Amino acid sequence: MNLAGMQRAGKPGYPWLVFLHGFSGDSREWLPVGESLEDYPRLYLNLPGHGASADISVAGFAAMNALLTRTLISYNILKYWLVGYSLGGRIAMFHACQQPKGLSGIVVEGGHPGLRDADAREARLASDRRWATRFRAGPLDNVFTDWYQQPVFASLSDAQRRGLITLRSQNNGAGLAAMLEATSLAVQPDLRAALHALSVPFHYLYGERDEKFAAIAAELNATRHVIPHAGHNAHRENPGAVASSLVQILRLRTKDTL
């Protein structure tokens, strides 16, 4: 079984843009950004436990990477960029570190490269297991009301928070819980060294109000792009600026390969 997704046609010879959403999102999440890049063929995937892939599960990052690779092959995608937000960004970084054939580069928005400290891993694992228990028990609107009170979402307005709670509550709680545990930051390897050795372009986006991921970006050997008037969910809060950054990144790189 492969990941479900929505695809859009582009011009011949242009690399694919493969979009990976964040936790509790789905294939629609990147549409406001991706549809402005109409020269490029685009694939918006649903990650396991999400959207039209709600019945799919994986056992960890290696299994997730194998599933992503099979899915790309099933779409006959031979030359591509991965564009991922948060969880999708972590999956994109892990994939890039396996040095897959055909990958042209990655664009990561607010993705964590991995925890270095054993105590931090233990604490994160306990936290993610508590959240997974809540997602399985529901109701999801109550769970997401608390989820979006976490410090990383502090820049959201009340209206933005209510909108996300309504949207995310359409998910399947058991599917979300399984994916949360399988791809917890606690079980993700620290990718910093492998990312430093990447042979493909690595671009990192973060919102100007996202202090946590601004600090993480400074640790990485990546070209950094600050998105104005945005916090952690920059592509949702300022899709125009994120699209402009992607246009800039891709114009420079695609010009050399067409």
Automatic annotation (TrEMBL):
Q: In which organism is this protein found?
A: Enterobacter huaxiensis
Where does the record place the AB hydrolase-1 domain?
15-239
The record's family statement is: Belongs to the AB hydrolase superfamily. MenH family.
Q: What is this protein called?
A: 2-succinyl-6-hydroxy-2,4-cyclohexadiene-1-carboxylate synthase
Reactions this protein catalyses:
5-enolpyruvoyl-6-hydroxy-2-succinyl-cyclohex-3-ene-1-carboxylate = (1R,6R)-6-hydroxy-2-succinyl-cyclohexa-2,4-diene-1-carboxylate + pyruvate
Q: What is its EC number?
A: 4.2.99.20
Query: Matching NCBIfam families, A to Z?
Result: menH_SHCHC, PRK11126.1
* Pathway field: Quinol/quinone metabolism; 1,4-dihydroxy-2-naphthoate biosynthesis; 1,4-dihydroxy-2-naphthoate from chorismate: step 3/7; Quinol/quinone metabolism; menaquinone biosynthesis
GO MF terms, alphabetically ordered: 2-succinyl-6-hydroxy-2,4-cyclohexadiene-1-carboxylate synthase activity
Task: Tell me the subunit arrangement.
Answer: Monomer.
InterPro entries, per database record = AB_hydrolase_1, AB_hydrolase_fold, SHCHC_synthase_MenH
Q: What does this protein do?
A: Catalyzes a proton abstraction reaction that results in 2,5-elimination of pyruvate from 2-succinyl-5-enolpyruvyl-6-hydroxy-3-cyclohexene-1-carboxylate (SEPHCHC) and the formation of 2-succinyl-6-hydroxy-2,4-cyclohexadiene-1-carboxylate (SHCHC).
Keywords from the UniProt entry: Lyase, Menaquinone biosynthesis
Instruction: Give the transmembrane region(s).
Output: none
Gene (UniProt): menH
Q: Which Pfam families match?
A: Abhydrolase_1
